[in-house]
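Memo to structure team: turn this sequence into structure tokens by end of day. - J.P.
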Amino acid sequence: MRADDKINGLNSQITQQQEEIQRLENLDQSQKQLLNENNILKEQLTTFQEKTKQLQDDIQEKQNEINHHQVIIKELEDTMKQMSSKYEKIEKELEEKQNEIIQLNNIIEQLKENNELINDKYQQLTKSFEEKQNEIDQLKNQYSNNYRGKSTD
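Reply from structure team:
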């Protein structure tokens, strides 16, 4: 039986070695699968890194645009303040000019009234002058008539 024991021992060793080979083949298959999955993960990581870089670039570009727009907004705000200040100044000047116009209109009205008074006075003086001139003419005529009448007598 020794030979049978040896055969059984050898068969047992062969079975163990076959199991070990199968286990190693399974490990090799698992290792290949893990390597394949690792390569896929590396590709995904590379893609993710590229997308991340692109997103960072896009974010930076948008930030630059935002900064540019903020500068424009600041300039517009400054311009608006200047325009508002100018508007207030112009509005004040306009109010002053309107007050001047009102004063000038009042002066014009006074001048019109004075002119009417002067015209009335002028007409009165003219009428009075004409009346006096008529009186003088009448006196001249009377004197002339009296003087002629005495010289013919």
